[in-house]
Amino acid sequence: MLLRTFISSARESLRRLYPEEEAKAIVTRLCEELLGVSGYAHILEPSLEIPEDKGEAVMSAMDRLAAGEPLQYVLGYAYFCGRKFRVTPDVLVPRPETGQLCDIVIRHGIAPGTRILDLCTGSGCIAWTLACAAPGAEVSGLDISSAALAVAASQDIRMPEGCLRPEFILYDVLSGESGLDAASGAAGHAAGSYAAFDIIVSNPPYVRESEKPLMHRNVLEYEPGLALFVPDSDPLVFYRAIAGIAGTRLRQNGFGAVEINEAFGDAVAGIFSDAGFRDVRKVEDFRSKIRFVTFRK
Predict the structure, then answer these.
(1) Could you say which of 115, 133, 221, 283 has the lowest number of CB atoms within 10 Å?
(2) Are residues 164 and 269 in the same domain?
(3) Domain end point (choices 32, 67, 102)
(4) Cβ–Cβ under 8 Å, residues 127 and 200
(5) Quick check: is 84 in a domain?
(6) 230-247 pLDDT, tens per residue?
(7) CA atoms within 13 A on the CB side of 108
(8) Domain assignment present for 81
(9) Nearest to residue 256, comparing CAs of 271, 237, 234?
(10) Residue 63 belongs to what domain range?
(11) What pTM, to 2 d.p., does this model score?
């Protein structure tokens, strides 16, 4: 099959799911990743054909995309903060906004030996990114999903010299401190080893159930709802839990950063202020939406 014929057909099949420019970008990326050709190769070489040994894989991938499956799940990986991460339907597809959350923490400063707690770690993209940011930083990624933790632990990330691989532990953030002690004990840590952290970071579930009609099918039908949604009756439940954990587990002068629903900037900031944290700030993302709250102890 001619590459230009495939691209034209593929874009058309995705236009019912995505805006035209996004459909175009998805097809371009698919061709780059599976065929190793640029997005304009079919224009420069109109007679360029898809190699026979790759045709079946490309058509199979296209069928999955046309059914609404996210490109990252079809490929089996996503790029995040310059690194390639394995992703499956057990974890969220990493978003650029979450990369900005990592940047906030890195710009704050991660000294050698810093202890970092990543709550609701999912694919581990935050934990791995921060672990690679400073030699000797000790990063623990915790999540309620054992399937997500398996993905996080399986990441094949090349660590810079002196940097330590994160550890990943099963833990329900909503179980509070006693749950954290139990989780660390089950992982074989000595009593008190989870007593103090220099940095606590989290991208917890924050999308209200009532917001589902506003979301794309590829998110609703394929990404794990456990990592996305909170009840409308208590949309800030995770932030109260994080504030409680940080209140006793974050060292004096320690730093925290959380990703949030843009609708609740004031409310989330209020949770951390009321919990006694200082220098509580709301931070905009690259779309000028309030997307993060930072705080110090």
Answers:
(1) 221
(2) yes
(3) 67
(4) no
(5) no
(6) 999 999 999 999 999 999
(7) 22
(8) no
(9) 271
(10) 3-67
(11) 0.92
